[in-house]
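Question (not urgent): is this output format expected?
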Amino acid sequence: MSIHTLGTSRLDAVVTEGTGHGFARIRLADGHAITLKARPGAEAAEEVFLSPGLTAPDTEAWENEDSWEDWLTGGTLGNESGMFLDVLTEALRDLIAQHGGEHDDQKGEDPAPRTEAATAEQAEPGLLAEIADLRGAFEHGYGADDIRNVFGRICDAGGPYLVCVWEVADAYGFGGNSEFYAEDEDGNLFTIRPDVYRWLTGQQEDPGPIDTWVGAHLPELVEFAATDDRHNYAQVER
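Got this back:
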């Protein structure tokens, strides 16, 4: 059986339907993956993450790379962030074609090839080794205490300060739907690479190099109804 299709049916479906507030992943035939956020019918994806080892083409369509301050990630991102803004759909099609098309198994795990980049362990041996046991920490779900413990360990080890924004907080604690973000010392929130969530839920072996975790600034997320001042926020308090 063929392991890929030269067409872009998965991409077509994603850009037609949009991804809502989340992201969609597209596995490529050679084992790489792209993860993107897009509005329904948009001509360009708002954000595109490239899996470690996947290099963006040297074209104008991929010039809008996102980089952040040293203190957010513990190092200068430069050209290693792997996250791009406003990438045209046609540029995504070209990239997919260059890597053999789309993989038939879109639900499988990424082999995480490392043809042009070091493995996460090689890039950040001390930090990632210290938190390696956190893989799968949220495999069976998580609560506010789990967030405090796990995100606290990541921060203490030298990683970015991660937070969980819950739907509601009441007398029983935090609950409802939730999203993960990175927060800077001024309280600004940023998206985080989907690899981090997949690693914490046990869906992949590593979260990628630490200097690729932090993504775009989200200026609309500035105020919350409740917080424990230890990695948890709530949009509504009851």
